[in-house]
Amino acid sequence: YAELCDGNYEILGPSAKIDAFYAELIGKYPDIDNYSDDEVDKCPWSVEIDISDGAVVMCMVWSRVDEVAPYVINLAARHDLSCYDPQNEKLYLSPSLSR
Question: pLDDT band at 99, cuts 50/70/90?
Fold first, then answer.
């Protein structure tokens, strides 16, 4: 996770699942750039979502964590992706890895 936050995306290989996950994610919770200055307080993201070929890194505002985090974890599982929660230091493995 720290490597990804530092911009080292080479530690993960590309995944075709990322684009579908991201499309569904922003379909429900658009990226912060899609909010006007008057509406940005309604956005669940504190900064722009960082997407690469192998990962999506998102930072949620604390006031929306209880709503958005479970959605993200379930969405990742539906797309057979793993999800890491750095605040709780918990890794949610993709369904194909947790069997």
Answer: low
3-state helix, strand, coil in the chain (%, to 5): 40, 10, 45
Identify the CA nearest to 33 among candidates 48, 18, 54: 48
Exposure string over 10-39, b if 16+ CB within 10 A, otherwise e: eeeeebeebeebbeebbeebbbbeeeeeee
Residue 90: CB atoms within 10 A of its CB come to 10
Q: What is the pLDDT of residues 15-59, one digit of tens each?
A: 999 999 999 999 999 999 999 999 999 999 999 999 999 999 999
Q: To 10 degrees, what angle do helices 17-28 and 65-78 make?
A: 150
Structure-derived torsion over alpha carbons of residues 5, 89, 51, 80, reported in degrees to the nearest 10:
150
pTM of the model: 0.89
